[in-house]
Write a structure and sequence with these properties.
This is MORN repeat-containing protein 5. It is found in: Cell projection, Cilium, Flagellum. There is one protein chain. 11% of the residues lie in helices and 48% in strands. The protein is mainly beta. It has one domain (5-72): Histone H3 K4-specific methyltransferase SET7/9 N-terminal domain (Single Sheet). A 6-stranded antiparallel β-sheet has the order 1-2-3-4-5-6, with no helix packed on it. Strand 2 and strand 3 (30-36) form a beta hairpin. 21% of the residues are buried.
């Protein structure tokens, strides 16, 4: 993963990212939680450089159940459609 600018610290199954993990994205957004077949899957939390966090249950890289724990959220952070959008949200300035 180093070649993408991301860093993965966690378990592998058959050479794929799977199990408990810490995944650091190039924007310094950090995911801590479960992975399956190389994507966020199960319970996990995204920690944004702004200090906000996004707790969710993930299914195949998409958030299907969300708990908001921060009073400061951007529109994209609040309603992600895919992990790519969540990654973009980490560099979106908060409104307010």
């Amino acid at each position: 993963m180093e070649y993408t600018g991301s860093k993965y610290i966690g378990e592998y199954v058959d050479g794929r990212m799977e199990g408990k993990a810490k995944y650091i994205l190039p924007t310094e957004t950090i995911y801590v939680g479960e992975m399956k077949d190389g994507v966020f899957h199960g319970e996990g939390t995204l920690y944004f450089p702004s200090g906000s966090q996004y707790d969710a249950v993930w299914e195949n890289g998409l958030a299907i159940k969300v708990w908001l724990n921060s009073p400061i959220w951007t529109h994209l952070e609040k309603y992600p459609r895919a992990i790519t959008i969540v990654e973009m949200a980490s560099i979106t300035p908060s409104r307010g």
